[in-house]
Amino acid sequence: MYFLEIQHLQSDYVCIFYYRKYKDNISSLDSTDGWSNKSVVTEFILLGLSSSQELQVFLFFMFSVFYGAAVLGNILIILTVITDSHLHSPMYFLLSNLSFIDVCQATFATPKMIADFLNEHKTITFQGCMSQIFFLHVFGGSEMVLLVAMAYDRYIAICKPLHYTTIMSRKVCTVLVGVSWAIGILHSASHLAFTVNLPFCGPNKVDNFFCDLPLVIKLACLDTYILEILVLTNSGLLSLICFLLLLISYAIILATVHHQASGGTSKALSTLSAHITVVVLFFGPLIFIYIWPFESFPIDKFISVFFTVFTPLLNPIIYTLRNKDVKKAMRKLRNRHMGSKWVF
Length: 344
Known about the structure:
The protein is mainly α. The chain has helices at 2-32, 53-83, 90-107, 110-116, 126-159, 164-167, 170-195, 213-217, 225-258, 262-291, 299-321, 324-343; strands spanning 43-46, 123-125, 205-206. The chain has one domain (42-336): Rhopdopsin 7-helix transmembrane proteins. It is built from twelve helices and three strands; from the N terminus they run αβαααβαααβααααα. A three-stranded mixed beta sheet has the order 2-1-3.
């Protein structure tokens, strides 16, 4: 009888021992094998544009020139608008803000891409990856809304010229710029709210030179179909609304210009053609991206380069080459600078 009680007591201790050991194993799995909601991926590997070392050296010099030209060109437009009193109008105020967004858009990923051309291991931290996603959608969303504001400015100037100074006041322009930034931030924050909490527990290779949202979502350790639909709906809806508003406004403007006298038509068309060119260059790649948002194509990297490097470079070229007022103000700024150097 005594022996049976001892045996029964020992069996209880054995059961307790194995239960505690099982519990410890489960908790260790939660913390190391991705069973919890916390990511174990601390960095992502960027595959970049090419794996050829010789080509990467060439791309380093090429994109260094393009990036420098984009930043200097847009900064030159901002300084020209600020320093020339003849350009203190709503149209050029919005143009200078567009140039500022272009500087930001060219800077959030391009400097790292240029530096990575000289690095064998192209990595980015988890926090850095999330930051790139955030800034990409902030600047992209803000630019879309700002282009709509610039189209509205041209609509008022051409269709309601007598009320232009009353409607497009300094306060209204400031509100339009503030709204564009607010929508861009809200649009980006809505993406980042669920992306930052996704479980990344294995694959960490991003097939691009920066962290693009669709590519990063596909690396999560769960079924991302619903998230892909949410991303497509969020970004696609904002892009579609802005694009439709631009189409409607430019259609009304072109119809109005067609019925106006020929004297003011040429100048209006010159200004309008620059805006339409920028809109086509900006929304063209976006339309392609959102037709196949989560399918990988070789042209995707070219579109990413075009969106982050060439669009900020082309915008100042388009607005300066087709705008006599901006070219005249730039010549005055250059002559003033050259004159001050001559004096000293």
